[in-house]
Amino acid sequence: MDQLPSYLTISDQPSSVLKSLIEKWKPDHVAILVDENTRDSCLPKLTIENALIVEIKSGEENKNLGTCEKIWSFLTENQFTRKSLLVNLGGGVIGDMGGFVASTFKRGIKFINVPTTLLSQVDASIGGKLGIDFNHLKNHIGLFRDPDHVIVNSNFLETLDTRELRSGFAEVIKHTLIKDRSQWQVLKKNTFESQNWNELIPRSIAIKNAVVSADPTENGFRKILNFGHTIGHAIESHLLMTPNKLLHGEAIAIGMILEGHLSLQKGWLTEIEFSEINDFIVSTFTLPNQLPDLETIEEYLMQDKKNDSKGISFSLLNGIGKCEFDVSISPDTIEKSFSAYSKLR
Ligand SMILES: NC(=O)c1ccc[n+]([C@@H]2O[C@H](COP(=O)([O-])OP(=O)(O)OC[C@H]3O[C@@H](n4cnc5c(N)ncnc54)[C@H](O)[C@@H]3O)[C@@H](O)[C@H]2O)c1
Ligand SMILES: [Zn+2]
Question: Nearest CA to 250 among 276, 223, 232?
């Protein structure tokens, strides 16, 4: 069984975990970074004496240098030093940006992530990727550094919008499909509503941790985490400026169906295995009936430098619970999976 990261605690008493870390590290100042949603819904569940609150506006559009400047200014005005601590209370936007701000402030101060979305609990808080968007390029500026601690509590999810929760569930499905065949048997028997988060979250975190620990700076093996993301990300980017905009996990759900179909075409998934995956995803997510044409998303698909004239590089399932990376697939084969999509649903 894969292990949890050494820097992560799962607890329904996040305040006491935080308090004991503060007693151990004795920071001279503590600030909690929130947005307007986590201030209202999550901050009441995290009581820390003498912590300052630094609030930013929610949303990916604010994950940028301007917001970082505001946080750096706040820390400076309040005399934060290299012995100070930043606690990031929020989803992946807060975690990625707060971690980046902390890692660069006075060449790096301690930071703790308290992730409050499913996506940030099972995905963004693990693996050490920190950063911000720049000139509309996602996560363009950043660095690798593990948080000094991560505190995970599924109770935070109680106030999360169901669409956001479902979107995060796509990453749980992905982790299961790439590395946990036995967990798939459990997952597929339940509906989204009847899933046991307290069981699924630790398992999903342990899978991500095992993968990133084997390849911390993304030289190879870590690419298996891209299952569903090559096509999913292209569709997400294409629809970003349209009224049909999808949440990340929804786009990844489509990506997992199409990339699962590529595995089927390769003979790496049986018809039965592929149908199981397809049926489960279709019954979990509300997905568009029609996809953009392959030609219209090709520019996004081709962005990966590993692609060549013969094909596009994918991470594909080789059976349920196993994933291969750097699998080159021809445009004709991809086209077949795109054509199959409308009949699959
Ligand atoms: N570092 C990594 O490895 C990694 C991995 C995956 C994604 N990411 C990043 O994560 C970001 C997406 O994260 P996300 O999906 O958590 O979105 P998010 O951080 O934008 O949060 C989604 C929304 O939910 C609100 N919210 C958060 N927790 C809440 C709660 N408990 N109750 C009520 N509202 C709450 C937020 O204010 C926000 O409006 C992206 O920027 C992505 O690039 C990073
Ligand atoms: Zn993802």
Answer: 232
Q: What are phi and psi of 86, to 5 degrees?
A: -115, 130
Residue 89 burial by Cβ neighbours in a 10 Å radius (0-12, 13-18, 19+): buried
Cα of 171 vs centre of ligand 2, distance in Å, is 6
Tokens found for residue 282:
């279709």
Q: Domain 162-344 - what CATH class?
A: mainly alpha
pLDDT at 237 over 80: yes
- Give residue-wise pLDDT tens across range 251-262: 999 999 999 999
Mapping DSSP to helix (H, G, I), strand (E, B) and coil, where does residue 192 land? coil
Residues designated as active site: 107, 129, 171, 208, 218, 222, 226, 229, 233, 248
Instruction: Dig out the tokens for 81 from the structure.
Output: 């030093």
Token code pair at residue 237 = 């980017």
Q: What is the CATH number of domain 8-159?
A: 3.40.50.1970
Q: Which residues contact 54 (CB under 8 A, 6 or more apart)?
A: 31, 32, 33, 34, 71, 74, 75
- Report how far residue 318's alpha carbon sits from residue 172's, in angstroms, rounded to the nearest whole number: 18
DSSP H or E stretch at residue 324? strand 323-329
Q: How far is the CA of 80 from the centre of ligand 2 (A)?
A: 34
What is residue 307's predicted lDDT score, i.e. its pLDDT?
A: 66
| Residue at token pair 């990506």 | 255
**Per-residue confidence at 306, pLDDT binned at 50, 70, 90?**
low
What residues line ligand 1, using a CB cutoff of 6 Å? 35, 37-38, 41-42, 58, 60, 63, 90-94, 96, 116-117, 119-120, 123-124, 127, 129, 139, 156, 159-160, 164
Domain positions in the chain are 8-159, 162-344
pTM to 2 decimals?
A: 0.97
Give distance in angstroms: CA of 92 to centre of ligand 1: 4
CA pair distance 150, 121, nearest whole angstrom: 9
> Where does the pLDDT of residue 298 fall: very low under 50, low under 70, confident under 90, or very high at 90 and above?
confident
